[in-house]
């Protein structure tokens, strides 16, 4: 699709508009993490592929049968071509806006146990980058929900989404609970995801998000320890789900969790069931190599959820 123009004929009836988070990762498999200093390493594989947080959420939602449209800024470069090709191959509608600094890039170091360390190139985004307000408004008008990545152009789009009347979710990732930048997103979303990785007191941070913003549901993912769900002043621990096969990479697990949760949330399911859907989707993602971008499908997700409920 062309830059700075939404193709509304193709997006009418969109379930989820995903804003931001399109980019390319170079995956490097390393013998251990942290990686000790050495002049050089021989590694089994290095591969570059499209897929950052917005891409993975959009792909996950699409695989679950939700009508999904992705909007972001990318460059006229080889990395941008990879993003365009991924969306076209998977059938995810994509509206691109030109990013003069080029397409977002990162390097992911992946250890034998599936843990990853991401190194983001912050030279691609410029302070003046924006998603065109008219494009955001046009796409939001035909969408039920918007999931917003925490890139700075998306922060400027939040008031437009609120005015359009769509519900909004965001993922704060490894927020420490203190950095002001993240508060723009945390306080303007109805549903907030974040990781416990950098939080000294996850419950305190989750409650502050509710107290200071508009969120009615806050979810904190904790890897193998499961996740925590805050709804109506009640904090609930949701156990992790055993992956269906061996864990090979945790890359994209949080994005898969968000997609699974949103699948249930948009279907009107209770938050606890949504969290279980998220746990199932996240566990599946851990079995997919970082060089791939497979997502759990609707039938498999529901079948697995039914098994867990009857166990």
From TrEMBL:
Q: For the Carbohydrate kinase PfkB domain, which residue ranges apply? A: 15-293
Q: Which UniProt keywords apply?
A: Kinase, Transferase
User: Would the keyword Kinase be found if you checked this record's keyword annotation?
Assistant: yes
Can the keyword Cell cycle be found in this entry's annotation?
Answer: no
Q: Which InterPro entries match?
A: Carboh/pur_kinase_PfkB_CS, PfkB_dom, Ribokinase-like
Pfam families, alphabetized = PfkB
UniProt-recorded name of the protein: Adenosine kinase
Taxonomy, top ranks, is:
Bacteria, Bacillati, Actinomycetota, Actinomycetes, Kitasatosporales
